[in-house]
Amino acid sequence: MNDKRQLEKTYDPRPVEEKWIRFWQDEGLYIADAKSVKPKFSMVLPPPNVTGILHMGHALCFTLPDIITRWKRMQGYNCLWLPGTDHASIAVHNVIEQSLAEKGLSREKVGREEFLRIAWDWKAKYGGVITGQLKKLGASLDWSRERFTMDPGFSRAVKHVFVSLYNEGLIYRDYYLVNRCPRCQTVLSDIEIEHRDLHGKLWYIKYPVEGSDEAIVVATTRPETMLGDTAVAVHPDDERFMHLHGKRVLLPLRNRLIPVITDERVEREFGTGAVKVTPAHDPVDFELGKLHNLEQVIVIDGSGKMTDAAGPEFRGLDRFECRARVIDKLRTLGLLVKTEDYDHAVGHCYRCKSVIEPYLSWQWFVRIKPLADKATRVVETGEILFIPANWTKTYFEWMHNIHDWCISRQLWWGHRIPAWYCRDCKHAMVAVEAPEKCEKCGGALDQDEDVLDTWFSSALWPFGTLGWPDETDDLQTFYPTDLMSTGFDIIFFWVARMIMMGLKFRGRIPFRHVFINGLVRDLKRRKMSKSEGNIIDPLEMIEKYGADALRFTLAALAVPGMDLALSEERMAGYQAFANKIWNASRFVLMNIGERPADVQESELSLADRWIRSRLATIIESVTRSLEQYKFYEAADVLYHFIWHEFCDWYLEFAKVGLRQGNSTTQAVLADTLGQIVRLLHPFMPFITEEIGQYLPGAGRSVAIAPFPAPQTHWTDVEAEKIMALIQEVIVETRKIRAENRIAPKEKIELWVKSSASPETRALGRHVPLIQTLAGVAKLEFRAEFPSGKPVLKGVAGLFELAIPIDMAAGLAAEKQRIGRELQKIAADIAKLEQKLGNADFVAKAPPAIVGENRTRLEALRDRRAKLEKNPAHLAPET
Ligand SMILES: [Zn+2]
Ligand SMILES: [Zn+2]
Fold first, then answer.
1. Cα 247 to middle of ligand 1, angstroms
2. What is the three-state SS of 14-61?
3. How much distance in Å is there from the Cα of 163 to the middle of ligand 2?
4. Which of 117, 450, 584, 672 is 20 to 30 Å from 316 at the Cα level?
């Protein structure tokens, strides 16, 4: 699509990236075809929160699968990468509540309908931010299939799943403890609770044993909850309480008899070893209560006030006021044994900082065991693979300790639970479509006020996005998907539940491979956080270094099972890499002519044979690395091949061939660059598309050009061996030149000690390469180096090298220069020796400064020793 055959002088990522984002979109290159006969490769994007702003964790989680899907697309697969966003129940709910609070309103004041209207407006206005940012990253998503977890189709899928699980008895309603802020009058999720250490008290209270003079002493930080105690628990093996097993104690202040129960979860070291059990007001006690069939007595209501069940003395009191009264009363009765200071973490409301209260209420649950068992088996059999494999263990640990899943949330933004209750007979009905009246008594119905946990809907993502519950072509073609790339923190919340739901409703796993990303940290391996001030913003990095540099950095750092130590320098480094490729491409394009001739096997130079052999190895290596999700390995191999072998060596060698007018070298140059562009495209899609469009025979887009196929017949052991010899000689010659400060433009004479070996003969056939790359005017093979002549010596593998320096003027000048340098070095050494000989300086100066001086002294001594052995210095005066 480019007429001119010349790349811009320098590479500016910004306009180039914008151009190709538009082009890819306009051309519909990433739109999958459900009817295609090609093999398919499919993924669903982990839907970012609709409130989300792209952070580095996203950038990683989206770049790596993009590399895979681009690679697969180039390999000829019918690729679907399906995008979408998650409605993020709590996050959006909070945003709306805050905006209401700023206007002096609350959700109760505006009501449900108005609240939801505001939320949808907000979503329409701000919800698309992250999708735009995904495009900037170069993610090759099929935007024609974009979904939202609350779009009508998806909502239908959610209702179907709920109703079907309910009808099977896998969803039920039960009493459950939730976290509630008594001041905000709302239920909070775990992540909305701030845990702060408080200086509290531990109160020791006597509970008299029935029919005995004995009493059990229990310790508690919340004495007011004792009014709702329904048992005392001890550890079954605790010798101190053996004789009390099966007995009952009298609950003080309420004069109720409650049992002494035994349970292995009781910590013998806490307090006295006996604990009070309040199932309605403590999560641990709640579990104990369920296991031991204890009554749940609610003594604190949703606003933090004591209920009737707390007894006439305490009813209506605020919970903390009640605490004081309870203590007073116990003290008067002689039942308070002692009080200790006790520091412990207490949950606070993140909004108003009130102490949160565990609150018992009706909730919906998924009976998880039958679903979990199947989901465990598919990982056990290897049908689903975790990469790296160590996450399998974590998965099993979670699955084996799984509890029923509480799926109702006391929020308004989300999927409203499709359950209705009869106002008259309290009968509950669950249905996809709202029923008109009670099926039992014909009474009016009210829908459940709660919404579903966000993870309930995201669990359906891999098939809900493909049209389920309808049997669509998309579903037939693209389910199960092939890869899921995500963070370890949501293996349980999300990955496990997608597996359960996929198996339940499709009878098949939702994806074959689960790639677990590392965490992106800073160079000191600290977590990135606002408070540390060490956040690296991906959008800022794209702006500064280009999306390709960011993507390549993430790939190069992505060692499976390891966190990434990210730095801006790294991105600057890969921006330089992009520039290197750009300049190399400019050189190639300027030297290959309009349309290079075909490669004539017989015309291939050693360098041509060598670069093709190396390329064959690289193609194989990159392909293998990508197959194993070793992004870092593929990136590393490409980087070194392109920078060092192609740019630094081959382009220089090719100049020799180009000067000789070798059209095959032109063809190899063009072809190698073309293959490089395609190998690199999954990692750096923008710059490769830009360069690729200028290359002879460019197709519609590099994104759909074939990925380089194996070229095993290019492997040329002989060429690689000879090239290694030549490179060694060039490297050593350059080193001698640099050490002896021979100006780059000065052409030297080089002697190579020869023998009758085949290596010497091979080297002898490629003298022009060495001459061009090492600045050699004349190369001679000599059986012996003549004695008495000053030479600079070196060793290059098998070969001894010598550079004679008998050009009279040069030698004399060099001898003088070395003499002057030695004088200066002597003076510097004397100064440093004096300084470091001064005990006072060594004692008082900062250790770093002393160390620095010592290092400098060492370096100067080394340099002196070297110069003193220099043949020019040793040469007799002329
Ligand atoms: Zn609050
Ligand atoms: Zn009814």
1. 41
2. HHHHHHHHHHHHHHCCCCCCCCCCCCEEEEECCCCECCCCCCHHHHHH
3. 19
4. 450
Using DSSP, state whether 89 is helix, strand or coil: helix
**φ and ψ of 258, to 5 deg:** -130, 150
pLDDT tens profile 190-211 = 667 888 988 999 999 999 999 9
Q: How many CA atoms lie within 13 A of 19 on its CB side?
A: 14
Distance 422 CA to ligand 2 centre (A): 4
User: How big is the CA angle at 857 (ends 852 and 862), to the nearest 5 degrees?
Assistant: 125
pLDDT at 665 over 90: yes
Q: What is the pTM of this model?
A: 0.84
DSSP state of 86: B
Tokens of 589: 């394009």
Percent of the chain with pLDDT over 70: 98
Pick the ligand that lies closest to the CA of residue 180.
Answer: 1
Average pLDDT, the chain: 93
Integer Cα distance of 65 and 68 in angstroms: 5
Q: Residue written as tokens 């116990």? A: 330
Contacts of 354 (CB under 8 A, 6+ apart): 181, 182, 183, 184, 304, 348
Would you state the pLDDT for residue 739? Answer: 82
Residue 187 β-bridge partners: 180
Distance, CA of 43 to CA of 478 (rounded, Å): 8
Q: Are strands 748-753 and 776-782 parallel, antiparallel or unpaired?
A: parallel
Q: Is the pLDDT of residue 3 over 60?
A: no
Distance, CA 408 to ligand 2 centroid (Å)? 23
**DSSP calls for 538-607:** HHHHHHHH-HHHHHHHHHHH--TTS-EE--HHHHHHHHHHHHHHHHHHHHHHHHS-SSPPPP-GGG--HH
